[in-house]
User: Which sequence fits this backbone?
């Protein structure tokens, strides 16, 4: 899908929103050392060899016969077993075919683990409010790997992430590339010269994904999360995109609703051990 989406009623938009949300994870298959990303007419899957970063992101089986699907599931499991992966995930989204794939995954030992709620907004329809920055707060786009280390530090504090998880994101972003002319753009919010907030933009599948909005604990309740989101929405407009997609946390969901986002799709995540 190379077109840039302009309308929430476009029948191809659910698949595009799913592709963007899945594409964030697919980047690990592109950006981490030793990783693999595979896509054909039926499956998009990735392997990193790192815990919880291996699995199937999109499934479009061409034949919906249960016997065929069972065979393809077994073949896919064998691919991961051959790579000595202990644990994999398999995601079920709005474009998944067959529609009953979850039942067949459960028959193969998968269990439901979690879900991703995708929210969307037509940023032209919701209008643009001027971003009011506090006097000592500024937002800058990261342009090099050294500056991006601040994003890694904020992720650890803002999401209470383990250092190795934040390092995976950092290595992935650096390897893939970011900034002018790239799919990924990363923004840092600085208070009195100290990096306290972050947010990322992912241009993929004709829509603009907003990811990783976070603020360090001591800088919360000052509206920085909203300001970072508004700034990224402004950047999306400048880059010629109209439909924004994101997945909220419980903490941020009400913020995004106030900004004009609405629930749009659900991606369910299943997983299983292989050994």
Assistant:
């Amino acid at each position: 899908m190379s077109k840039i989406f302009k309308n929430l009623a476009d029948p191809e938009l659910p698949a595009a929103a799913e592709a963007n949300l899945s594409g964030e994870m697919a980047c690990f298959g592109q950006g981490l050392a030793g990783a693999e990303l595979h896509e054909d007419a039926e499956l998009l899957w990735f392997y990193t060899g790192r815990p919880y970063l291996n699995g199937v992101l999109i499934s479009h089986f061409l034949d919906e016969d249960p016997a065929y699907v069972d065979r393809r599931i077994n073949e896919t499991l064998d691919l991961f077993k051959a790579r000595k992966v202990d644990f994999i995930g398999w995601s079920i989204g709005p474009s998944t075919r067959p529609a009953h794939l979850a039942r067949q995954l459960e028959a193969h030992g998968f269990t439901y683990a979690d879900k991703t709620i995708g929210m969307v907004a037509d940023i032209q329809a919701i209008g643009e409010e001027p971003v009011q920055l506090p006097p000592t707060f500024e937002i800058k786009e990261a342009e090099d790997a050294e500056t991006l280390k601040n994003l890694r530090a904020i992720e650890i504090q803002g999401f209470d992430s383990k250092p190795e998880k934040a390092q995976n994101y950092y290595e992935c972003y650096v390897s893939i590339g970011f900034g002018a002319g790239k799919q990924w753009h990363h923004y840092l919010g600085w208070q009195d010269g100290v990096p306290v907030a972050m947010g990322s933009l992912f241009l993929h599948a004709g829509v603009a994904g907003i990811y990783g909005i976070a603020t360090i604990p001591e800088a919360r309740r000052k509206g920085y999360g909203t300001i970072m989101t508004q700034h990224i929405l402004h950047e999306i407009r400048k880059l010629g995109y109209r439909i924004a997609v994101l997945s909220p946390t419980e903490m941020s969901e009400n913020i995004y609703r106030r900004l004009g986002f609405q629930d749009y799709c659900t991606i369910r995540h299943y997983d299983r051990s292989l050994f």
Observations:
- The longest helix spans residues 13-31.
- The mean pLDDT is 95.
- The helical segments are 13-31, 66-82, 101-107, 145-158, 163-176, 224-238, 253-258.
